[in-house]
Amino acid sequence: MLNVKRGLKSWKRIVRDEVHNIKPYIPGKPIKEVKEELGLAEVYKLASNENPLGVSPRVKEVLTRETVNINRYPDGASRSLKRSLSDKLGVKEDMIAIGNGSDGLLKVIAEAFLDNNSQAVISYPSFVEYKFVSQLMGTQLIRVWMKNYHQNLEALARGVTSKTKLIFLTNPHNPAGTIFRKDELEQFLSQIPDDVIVVLDEAYHEFVQDESYPDGIEYVKQGYPVIVLRTFSKAYGLAGLRLGYAISAPDIIETLMKVRDPFNVNHLAEKAGQAALEDKDFLEATIRNNEQGKEYLYTELDKIGVGYVPTQANFVLIRTGVDSIKMFKELLKHGVIVRPGKPLGYPHHLRVSIGLPEENEAFIRGLKLTLE
């Protein structure tokens, strides 16, 4: 007779060491769960930097129409979406890779270039996915501390060694919301060896209002070893469909295509992405709502004397001065879900997504009650 207990124990010895050392990603709490746990009738989620306006009406129409085709495999090459992005961005189709969100593309990049004899350079704190994909491949991480909530590009360049294969930058930065300027990026790129790839994550680029902000695609066109990542999850409101894309030199894109899963983007996501690109009015409304919400939060936070980091994204990093987990739990009681800063590297901060006016007002009310 099979010894089931013995079998359940013995499998653990074959797990890769890298996997044992990884801590699972903990997403923001869903609204339904908070309502059930605390018995609240109204809950506002400002934790995951989602689009508070929802999705474009065009996207809704396309999704309804395309449900009849979900019995078929999607176009594995995402040709239609690549064509639309090529026209919008002014790059050739062979310079574009489509992925299951930016997260999926980050994993593909790591699998293509990293191993246990290499190094990756990241800012700290920064988006946790860079650490995850590097750890998964057994890669040594070189962490460079942020400087006044900004990425220290000079120190990042000094962190490069003969073993460095990838450098992860994020512009705007998550979770600080700050940016680096064109001149800073150009100075940085001039110091990076040709055999080191710079991954430039621009997930929040649509929200940037600062004219000194560099468009990473221009540096791809100029021949720098750069991979630009962008997403439909934020400004376009397609977080639930998981859709992102990468722009780089054709030979780099070809390398990534060797590693990706077949049919890595589902049919509805691809069609929704095309529709989202066509709806300029929805994108403009999204950016307008974000700017208005940002100014409201700045004004109210100034009134109550709570510090914050001026942002170029759709969230604000707020300096509460108290333990972020405690503050997070207190705000939950008032029906507001935010992101505690401790898991993000800022233990006395909260990251708050910019929502609709009523959501922003609910956060300020909850914050005032929590600070009393």
Automatic annotation (TrEMBL):
Q: Which gene encodes it?
A: hisC
What is said about its interaction partners and assembly?
Homodimer.
> What are the residue boundaries of the Aminotransferase class I/classII large domain, all occurrences included?
42-361
Q: What is this enzyme's class at the first EC digit? A: transferase
Q: Sites of the modification N6-(pyridoxal phosphate)lysine?
A: 234
Family matches, as PANTHER family: HISTIDINOL-PHOSPHATE AMINOTRANSFERASE, HISTIDINOL-PHOSPHATE AMINOTRANSFERASE 2
Family under the similarity heading: Belongs to the class-II pyridoxal-phosphate-dependent aminotransferase family. Histidinol-phosphate aminotransferase subfamily.
Which metal ions or organic cofactors does this protein require, according to UniProt? pyridoxal 5'-phosphate
Species assigned in the record: Halothermothrix orenii (strain H 168 / OCM 544 / DSM 9562)
One MF annotation (Gene Ontology) recorded for this entry = histidinol-phosphate transaminase activity
Protein name, UniProt field = Histidinol-phosphate aminotransferase
Q: What keywords appear on the UniProt entry?
A: Amino-acid biosynthesis, Aminotransferase, Histidine biosynthesis, Pyridoxal phosphate, Transferase
